Predict the 3D structure of the following.
Amino acid sequence: MKYVQEYRDADRCRQVAEAIAATVTRPHTIMEICGGQTHSIVKHGLDQLLPEQITLVHGPGCPVCVTPIEAIDRAIAIAQQPDVIFCSFGDMLRVPGSTIDLLSAKAQGADVRIVYSPLDAVSLAAEQRDRQIVFFAVGFETTAPATALAVRQAQQLGLDNFSLLVSHVLVPPAMSTILAAPDCQVQGFLAAGHVCTVTGFEMYHAIADRFQVPIIVTGFEPLDILHGVYHCVQQLEAGTATVENCYARSVREPGNAAAIATIESVFQVTAQSWRGIGELPNSGLELRSEYAQFDARRRFKVVVASSVDDGVCQSGEILRGLKKPHECPAFGQTCTPDRPLGAPMVSSEGACAAYYRYRERQAVAGSAVTPVQA
């Protein structure tokens, strides 16, 4: 814990917050694009340590949250097929589809299993050759290398009973879409350190130049995030817009060459629908033609109707940074972790889940929130 605790030191956090207060002269809105950062901000009360001129908003940094309803419905339909074992990370089981979720499908008899790696699903396919094993491949660029390795291993083992339902998404197109929107309030970004550990941050230079916004690569601990905010505020005050790496202990500008090569060997870039945002060009991954036999969409000819949100859940506005979770009328009332209306309330990286866990009573009551000690 030594090397974790030094990034949670309360005195050092307060010192950085004071440095931010001494630097800022006008209002600035900064978006973090990582659910892990969102939870750290809310848990430790970092937004409340900052001067009132700084507003932190929460972007589409949770891949579970942006998985479209149609993908959830397709996953449920495949899981309900005879002789299918449907494997998924635990976060996906309670994400609402148009009618039910995967956990409800399991309760109705579908063989739905939680795995901790796509390689677990490959091992299961090798053991259960008489069953069809499907893995729900969800995540940003961070988890895509492991998914790609699973496909390559399945091919090497000659497994004809393994397939993927792919819903991988890419961060940079989402950032560009948010910045291009006419109602955009974001003036600077905290980029997700774990994504940049894989991809690097060379592609962010074009975004910073095009939209004239600073982009600061940072980590997840309180001191990481506050340092990121400090560097972002310095640029905003100076009128500059460049990419800075404040997470050098993990991130290098070119990224992880082996991981990138692995992704590119199995996947190609495609358009992808994002829950609450819509379809974004070049924002997702799909299997290359040489791995098409592992595509669950082709293997299982299930028919899924197009679905739209009912309008009660306002997760779209929350994912675009236009609202905070407690500003949704359903928050903590008709939408709770036990009965969620949207994915941000059930995902471990969801903004609504973070607010409910750490600030639910205050937010519902409309009262001030006491900062959590760093």
Notes: The two ends are 15 Å apart (CA to CA). The longest helix spans residues 222-238. DSSP finds 17 helices and eleven strands in the chain. Residues 1-69+134-140+162-291+311-362 form a domain with the Rossmann fold fold (CATH 3.40.50.11750).
